[in-house]
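User: I've been going back and forth on whether these two constructs are worth ordering. Before I decide, could you fold them both?

Assistant: Sure. I'll take them in the order you sent them. The first construct and its structure tokens:
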Amino acid sequence: MLRSIRPDAVLVQAVIAGALSFAHLHDLAEAAGQTGWKAWAYPVSVDLLLVAAWSRLRTARRDRSAWTWFVIALFASLGANIATAGLLDLGDVPAWLRILVAGWPALAFLGGTLLVHTPAAKSAPQPVDDEPATPPEVDVTRTDTPEPTPVPAPAPAAPELTPAPPQPTEVPTVPAALLDHARKLADAHQASTGAPMPADTLSARLGLPAPMTNAIAAQLQLT
């Protein structure tokens, strides 16, 4: 059963970028005097050197040689892309650029050979001790007994605090005039409703603090 093929945006982008870079390297090599199959071989050489250096860097991040050849191949690819963007007259390529293009095969061959045949630096293996560690000898003839650890004396219990007896509540003194006024209000309420005035109603009518109102209600015998 065939697997379904799904387009991958990253893969499509990589193919497009690779094709454009390949074409720019070909155009630059052809403008520098490398015609025929040789112009097509230059982009292959640059891209292979770039891939080889990157593969080496994946296993040896601190390999200076791999970093050097990776940067050289990257500059060769970027230089071709920039040179063919209209900054260079491909009909009249300067002599120094022709020299660089002509010497690139030898440089790429040297870089590829060094990347392939130079062994990667490996960390030295840790020595393994095959002999098991000898347990310390125990002197079974020693009869000294350890001294007992002194037990600290218990801390004295805190004395119990006796709660203070409740203080008697001081009953406020009610002025006679205020008491007469409260009695008139209570009498008027009883005359109009036929029932004694409640203490909370008296408190609301007088607008006094609770202790004073309770004292007045107690003297008037209000509930």
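The second construct, handled the same way:
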Amino acid sequence: MLRTLYPPIEPYATGTLDVGDGHSIHYERCGTPGAKPAVFLHGGPGGGISPKHRGLFDPALYDVLLFDQRGCGNSTPHAGLEANTTWHLVADIERLRELAGVEQWLVFGGSWGSTLALAYAQAHPDRVSEIVLRGIYMCTTAELDWFYQFGVSEMFPDKYERFVAPIPEAERGDLLRAYHRRLTTGTREDQIAAARAWSLFEGETITLLPDPATSAQHDEGHFALAFARIEAHYFVNNCWLEPDQLLRDAHRLHAIPGTIIHGRYDMPCPARYAWALHKAWPEADFHLIEGAGHAFSEPGILDQLIRATDRYAGKSGE
């Protein structure tokens, strides 16, 4: 039987952390205080946390810290790009670990969260007890081209046509930078219009089958503005990673128990990169899920995510 989310719960604590540079990070803590510590890293970059994310962990066995990364969700300034890089976020995770008062914690990340989890774990391997990754993303030029230029366009020609429509034909040779200009200049109204087109393209391609709720979230202006601005900001800067850095430094993870979960038909994040991580980090469990796209809500992906968090908390499988 496929596992599903644990029942909805409310945080036992919420707060904000001033991380400097004008940024304030919103966080929440869920589960049982003093139980197995874990940190949840959301996707995007720019996506934010959701109440559903709390259900990925058994609340009786985990003490989970979830937070909105710089510029998104309830963190401020909304959609702020200054002092917002991968390495600022890695430093924020360490600040939050110190706030939580734990020496090590399980790191859980999906999509962009997998990128950030790898960057953090490779920088601070001694602070990571286990890693659970979903929808592996390396932020390579090839991945960016696949999603924004040629690749997903062949699978979703109708969605892609709407994505490129706001961009004049002369600028379509580099859609990432064309969108970045529109998301960082002009009026707020113009930025939101561009952001909705950007965000909806992703929202409509991350699930194997259409999901109106996911599409609606990505089409909402406030969410879309942070999502699109922060993504474009990170992607034009290659996420401040050296070429193939996360694969090159995978050897730093060899002593850390890990689980890699990826959908066979993941459109934003082609499975070859998950496979490459599996080869570079063979000690980690690897699950390539048939009949699944990118989102954590895909039934086969969700099943393996819950089984992984249960297993790392010492709970026997069903």
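Notes on the second construct follow. Residues 188-203 form the longest helix (16 residues). The two ends are 8 Å apart (CA to CA).
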